[in-house]
Design brief:
The chain is an alpha/beta fold and about 450 residues long. It has two domains: about 250 residues, Aldehyde Dehydrogenase, Chain A, domain 1, CATH 3.40.605; about 180 residues, 3-Layer(aba) Sandwich (Aldehyde Dehydrogenase, Chain A, domain 2), CATH 3.40.309.10. The protein binds NADP nicotinamide-adenine-dinucleotide phosphate (NAP) and magnesium ion. The site of NADP nicotinamide-adenine-dinucleotide phosphate has 32 residues, from helix 7 and helix 8.
């Protein structure tokens, strides 16, 4: 029997010991989910909607408990953690409107009637990373359950506590046993079994690009459906004609939120050369004011990194002689604290500039003009997110059309809303989550022709 000890990233002390599932237990849970699918798919649309709304209400009633659990397990700031639990509620409420609206089409054909149906897939395997345990789980299980599928969910080994609690709350809401199953375990055991088990009909994976590629290869064996949300190295593109004060004030949060452990982190700042000095002066002031402190404080803007392993990984991006322009503050003592760090590399070949760091480190690079900005922004294997700052409407439209990324914001750094689509270009992912079309990713389209000549 294998176990895992959860360590608090704030105190470095053990929080809880947890049993990790093996392959046999994973198979048993998948079998249970398959059995539950036979009846869950037949629950009437109105009743399925009611159960999802009840689930949302119970999550809402436990918002503070879930948030505190995330602070304990993951070191998220309490403000963020409350938003994260609220996001699960919102996603459930949004997709609770879906069961009665899973429309097909009626297509004109000779000698009969042609209708399409959106059928559920069966058991959906959801594999979640440690950076946003609650929202990323919810983006999968909300629409999956609404479309009539059942779910097996594997939280990250490091951060399973809120997922386990959400599984209990689903039962409390009256979601039948076996419909929503949380299985804590190793990626190489439980996650891999989701990929190889023939009754898991689809994988929803969020995590690193390396593991994502491996899962994609595995899914090919069974032509298993797959959604991938992978890494990012998003650009925050600031033109000289922008509101530089506003862009500089927002830039620390855009990359250092969640200690930079955010796939949407704007970890490359591209600033037009004529505004470089003004921006850097304002940005330095904003970084030095950024509050890195005990995440349970309401004032905290950033907590520690998730683990010692992540701390070491981020540190490796900053060997001695790194082009550090300035750094923010961090507390002393226990905890995996990493000071917000701003780099000014000579060119775009720097490893810290090109690779996803997943820590509070940002590289600033100047550009000359619009074409130069687009070229530099797109010179990346990733394409998840990004921001464009300009007062010129035409330019904002042109650049937002030209940047190869799935989620952009203009004169803002906000790119995630549960009712708009989310996902990446290039090696940042495959498919889209959230928004009005997410149900398509959890259903098969079935076409049926009825002959009316008989
Ligand atoms: P990771 O190492 O790829 O792990 C993600 C999940 O996959 C974990 O639950 C992990 O289990 C599991 N896993 C590992 N190996 C597996 C295998 N062979 N088969 C099946 N599952 C396996 O990623 P991470 O370090 O947790 O998360 C950071 C990455 O996630 C970053 O690259 C970030 O950009 C990306 N991310 C992307 C998005 C997006 O929406 N695009 C959002 C958030 C994060 P274990 O816990 O046992 O390792
Ligand atoms: Mg990993």
């Amino acid at each position: 029997m294998s176990t895992y000890t959860i360590i608090s990233p704030v105190t470095e002390k053990p929080v809880q010991e947890l049993h990790l599932a093996d392959v046999a237990e994973t198979d048993a849970t998948i079998a249970k989910a398959q059995k539950a699918f036979e009846s869950w798919r037949l629950v009437t649309p109105g009743d399925r909607a009611k159960l999802l709304r009840k689930f949302a209400a119970i999550v809402d009633a436990h918002n503070e408990e879930l948030a505190q659990l995330e602070v304990l397990n993951s070191g998220h700031t309490i403000g963020n953690a409350r938003w994260e639990a609220g996001n699960v509620r919102d996603v459930l409420n949004y997709y609770s409107a879906a069961p009665e609206r899973l429309f097909g089409r009626q297509i004109p054909v000779p000698n009969g009637i042609d209708i399409t149906f959106k059928e559920p897939l069966g058991v959906i395997g959801i594999i979640v990373p440690w950076n946003f345990p609650m929202p990323i789980a919810g983006w999968g299980f909300g629409p999956a359950l609404a479309a009539g599928n059942t779910v097996v969910l594997k939280p990250a080994e490091l951060t399973p506590l809120t997922a386990i609690r959400l599984g209990e709350l689903a039962l409390e809401a009256g979601i039948p046993e076996g419909v929503f199953n949380v299985i804590p375990g190793k990626g190489s055991v439980v996650g891999d079994r989701f990929v190889t088990h023939p009754l898991v009909r689809k994988i929803v994976f969020t995590g690193s690009t390396g593991v994502g590629k491996q899962i994609m290869r595995g899914c090919a064996d069974q032509v298993k459906r797959l959604t991938l949300e992978l890494g990012g190295k998003s650009a925050n593109i600031i033109f000289a004609d922008a509101d530089i004060e506003k862009a500089a004030a927002g830039a620390p949060g855009a990359v250092f939120d969640n200690a930079g452990q955010d796939c949407c982190a704007r970890s490359r700042i591209l600033i037009q050369r004529s505004a470089y000095d003004k921006f850097m002066e304002l940005f330095e002031g904003a970084v030095k004011k950024f509050r890195v402190e005990d995440p349970s404080l309401d004032t905290a803007e950033m907590g520690p990194l998730i683990s010692k392993v992540q701390f070491d990984r981020v540190s490796e991006f900053l060997p001695s002689g790194s082009p550090i322009a300035f750094q923010g503050n961090k507390p002393e003592g226990a905890g995996y604290w990493f000071a917000p760090t701003v780099l000014t590399p000579k060119d775009s070949n720097d490893r810290a500039y090109r690779e996803e760091i997943f820590g509070p480190v940002v590289s600033v690079l100047p550009f000359e003009d619009e074409a130069d900005a687009i070229r530099i922004a797109n010179d990346s294997e990733y394409g998840l997110s990004g921001s464009i700052w300009s007062r010129d409407i035409g330019r904002a439209v042109r650049v937002s059309r030209a940047v190869e990324a799935g989620n952009l914001s203009v004169n803002s750094n906000s790119s995630v809303r549960y009712w708009t689509p989310f996902g990446g270009y290039k090696q940042s992912g495959l498919g889209r989550e959230l928004g009005p079309d997410a149900l398509d990713a959890f259903t098969e389209t079935k076409n049926v022709f009825f002959d009316t000549q008989v």
